[in-house]
Write a structure and sequence with these properties.
Blueprint lengths: L17 E4 L6 E8 L2 E6 L4 E9 L1 E5 L2 E5 L4 E4 L5 E5 L5 E8 L1 H7 L14 E2 L2 H10 L9 H17 L14 H13 L7 H8 L3 H12 L3 H18 L4 H7 L5 H12 L3 H9 L3
Helix pairs in contact: 1-3, 2-3, 3-6, 4-6, 4-7, 7-8, 7-9
Length: 283
C-alpha cells in the first residue's frame, strides 16, 4: 500500500518506510507505520488523530510550536489543526495512530451539553487514553465490532475530558446493578453471536456509553471484553473435548480460526494449537 493512500498528507521518504492499515471502517481508521526521515508534509484532518510512539522520536509542528514524542507517549491532534511530521532522530520512528470521527466522541460524552474536548498538550501521558488506544489496536486484521468501537469511543471521550482543563468533570458514580445483571446474562447467553450495542440498550434501558462505564465499574471490564472472554472460555473447552480449531472458532462466534488464534494468544499467552497439544496429553 502506498503511504499517501492511507491518510492525506503522508509522504514516503525512504524505501524502508512502511505503513500497515487495518481494514477500512466507517468512523475510525487505524494505521501502524515506520518512517526514517520526513514522514508527511503539512496537512490537516477532519478527525481526531490519536496514537502513540512505539520507538524512536516522532517530531512535528503543531499549533505554532515543535513537539517531540518518544516511546510510550501519547499524541493527540485535534480536527482541522495543521501539522507535519518527521523522525526526530536517525533511528526513525515507529508508531500507531487512529483517526476517529468527532461525531463518535461527541456521542460518547457524559453530557450532551459539553463541547468537544480540547487537549492543549499534543504529547502527553495518560492511562485512560492509552487504554483506549490499546483496545483499538488489539487486532489490526479485522474490523472492530460495534460494541468494541463504542467502548473505544467512550474511553477516548473520558480520557480527552480528563485532560481538558476547561471542563467541569463532576460526574456520578452510581451503578444500576439490575441493568448490569441483565447485560451480563444476555452476553452469557449470546457469546456465539455478534452483539449490537443497540440490543444491550433495549435490554438494560441504559444508553451504550453509560452502560459501558457502569459495567466496567461493576465488573472491572467492558461489555465487549466480557463477551470476548466468554467466547474464549467456550473455545478452550471445545478444543479440550476434541473439536478441531476451525470448528471451535466457528462454534464460538469468531469470524475464522485466525481471529480466534489472535485473541486466544493475547488472552492466554499460548496459541490454541499449543493448548490443543497440551490437553491431548491429559490423562
Amino acid at each position: 500500500m502506498r503511504t499517501r493512500d492511507v491518510t492525506p498528507g503522508l509522504e514516503r521518504s525512504c524505501a524502508d518506510d512502511w505503513v500497515r492499515a487495518a481494514p477500512w471502517q466507517q468512523g475510525i481508521q487505524r494505521i501502524e507505520a515506520f518512517f526514517s526521515g520526513e514522514a508527511y508534509a503539512p496537512h490537516r484532518h477532519d478527525t481526531y488523530a490519536i496514537g502513540f510512539t512505539i520507538r524512536g522520536v516522532q517530531s512535528f509542528d503543531y499549533r505554532g510550536s515543535r513537539a517531540d514524542s518518544t516511546s510510550g507517549r501519547i499524541i493527540v491532534l485535534h480536527p482541522d489543526e495543521v501539522h507535519n511530521g518527521e523522525a526526530g532522530s536517525e533511528e526513525g520512528f515507529h508508531y500507531r495512530m487512529m483517526y476517529i470521527e468527532p461525531s463518535l466522541v461527541r456521542d460518547a460524552l457524559v453530557s450532551s451539553t459539553l463541547a468537544l474536548p480540547f487537549v492543549k498538550d499534543a504529547v502527553l501521558d495518560d492511562p485512560k487514553l492509552m487504554q483506549a488506544i490499546q483496545a483499538a489496536f488489539s487486532d489490526m486484521d479485522t474490523q472492530l465490532e460495534q460494541i468494541a468501537l463504542d467502548e473505544i469511543a467512550g474511553l477516548l471521550a473520558d480520557g480527552l475530558l480528563a485532560n481538558d482543563k476547561s471542563v467541569n468533570r463532576a460526574s456520578t458514580s452510581l451503578i444500576d446493578v439490575n441493568a448490569i445483571d441483565r447485560a451480563r446474562e444476555y452476553l452469557d447467553a449470546n457469546y456465539d453471536s455478534t452483539v449490537a450495542s443497540s440490543q444491550l440498550e433495549v435490554i438494560t434501558g441504559q444508553d451504550r456509553f453509560s452502560l459501558a462505564r457502569q459495567f466496567r465499574k461493576a465488573l472491572g471490564t467492558s461489555p465487549y471484553r466480557y463477551l470476548m472472554m466468554r467466547r474464549l472460555d467456550r473455545a478452550r473447552a471445545k478444543i479440550a473435548t476434541g473439536f478441531s480449531l476451525t470448528d471451535a472458532a466457528l462454534a464460538t462466534g469468531f469470524s475464522d480460526q485466525s481471529h480466534m488464534t489472535r485473541c486466544f494468544k493475547a488472552s492466554y499467552g499460548i496459541s490454541p494449537g499449543h493448548w490443543q497439544r497440551l490437553v491431548s496429553h491429559t490423562v
